[in-house]
Each structure stands twice: as C-alpha cells, then as structure tokens.
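Weekly structure sync, notes
Attendees: PL (lead), two postdocs, one rotation student
Agenda item 3: pending single-chain targets
PL asked that the sequence for the first pending target be pasted directly into the notes so everyone works from the same version. It is reproduced below exactly as submitted, 312 residues in total.
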Amino acid sequence: MTTLTARTPQPAARTKARRAAPGRGAAYVFLTPWILGVGLLTLGPMLASLYLSFTSYDLFSTPEFIGVENFQKMAEDPRFWSAVGVTLKYVLVAAPLKLIAALSVALLLNKSRRGQGFYRSAFYAPSLLGASVAVALVWRTLFSDDGTIDAGLSSIGIDSGGWISNPKLALYVLVVLAVWQFGAPMVIFLAGLKQIPQDVYDASAVDGAGKLRTFWNVTLPMLSPVIFFNLVLETINAFQAFTAAYIISGGRGGPIDSTLFFTLYLYDRAFTAFDMGYASAMAWVLLVAIALVTALIFRSSRAWVFYSGEEK
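Predicted structure, written out during the meeting:
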C-alpha cells in the first residue's frame, strides 16, 4: 500500500514562487507616487505641526519649545471658546438640515417622471460649484445690507437690517448656503433608494401600511447604512468649513464673532497674528475633536443602522 505524504517546499522552491508572483514589482512602482505623496505631503506636515504645537513660533524665528503652554492658553482664550461654540452650532444645524433636504429631494426624484434627468442635474449643479470663492461672493451680495434678499423682504414689510451684519442671522446665511449644496448626499441617497427591493414595499402595502408608516418602517431602516455614511461625511465637512465663512464675514468672524468658525480663528492666529505654534495646537485639537465625534457616530450606529441579512 502506497502512502502519500506531503512534502515541505524547499527554500529554493519558495524563492522561485515569490519571484513568480505576478505584478508585485509593478504594484510597488505604481504605488510609489502615492507613498511619496502621503509621506511628504501628509505625514511629514502632520508630524511637523505636532512638534510646532509645543513651541512658540512666529514663522520667522527658530521655534522655541514651551511644552503645553499653547493648550493652556486655549482654555483661557475667550475667542477660542467662541469659535468652538459657533462651530458646534453650525455642525448641529447645517449637517442635519442638509441631509434632510438631500433625502427629501432624493425621494421625489426616485419616482420615474418626465424630465427626470434634467431635475437631477439641476439639483446636483450647486454641489459642482463647491465651497468656491465665487459662490461665497454671490452669497455675500445677496444677503448684504442692500442685497437682493434684504430688498425683497423689505418690500413686504420685513426689515432684517441685513443678514450678514445681524449677529442673530449671520450664521444662518452660511447654514442656508450649506443646505443649498445638498447635491452630493442627494445622489448617494438616490443610489441607496434604488437598491431597496420592491418586494418589501409590496409586502408593506399588503399589510395595509400607509406611506408614512412605510417610510418609517421600511425606507429608513433599509436606507440607514447610506444615512450613516452621509452623516459621517457631512459632519466632518461641517467641522472643516472655512471658505464661505472667510469670504462672507470678510475674514473677521462677522459681527461680534457670530461666524467665527474654528478654522477661521485658526487661520487668523496662523497668518494674521503669526502665532504658528498656537495655530498648530488648534489644528490638533480640531483633529482630535473630529475623531471623537466620528467615533461617537460609529458607536451610536449600532442602535440605528441595519444591514441586509443582519439580525438585531
């Protein structure tokens, strides 16, 4: 009786197999630009800013190590806390409203109708413009003291005194601008709606569920992974908002710092006061804050995000 035994590959055979691995060398060649980019343009500056956050540095002299003094100064800086409050308010208002607008329009565009392609393009168009300087300038003109919006409201007896110059309204000009550019999450929601099987809607109709109940018990749970994805992206984008706030407020944070975003104050400390050490410390505080908020969203997703085939 012949017994078959497994033979351990010899070192020479293993070396030959490694050499025969297809495309390994080519893969490293094609990855080289990305590796260099990450190292030189991302990791390098991050490590440099981490070091600068523990120094006193004015961009023109040699950095002087001062330990955690920059972080201690933040705790006593009233403008820092004002920027934190404005940013949190913006995130809590702009991100949810933008997602609600995107989902609402996606639900309308999910049904086949004449001219559907035109409507999708029209609603998506503002997102193509992004947070550009041109859009911010137009928005500033519309909502200025003598702008079109203020003139229109004044004609019907509503005098706001100018949205941008009003501390109670200035932040909402930026919120409206963010909500207006809901095209990107709308497209993602629309793609998610297309993936929901028609069978579940038919079963809901057989059970006698109305439109509202079907939306709450079928559409939202089936769409929850997409909602989660958009929520994470829009929350991070809201924390990083800068261009519109800088242009509309003239780079000063608006009336009594009502539009002083965290990023705007960071820019002011870095390139107006030339306090690069303090600005670097602020950048790392922002990074940690975004990471914590993102982790909190991921943690909460266990309770409200449902994946197909998963048992809760």
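Discussion points:
- DSSP finds 14 helices and two strands in the chain.
- The mean pLDDT is 86.
Action: rotation student to compare against the earlier draft before next sync.
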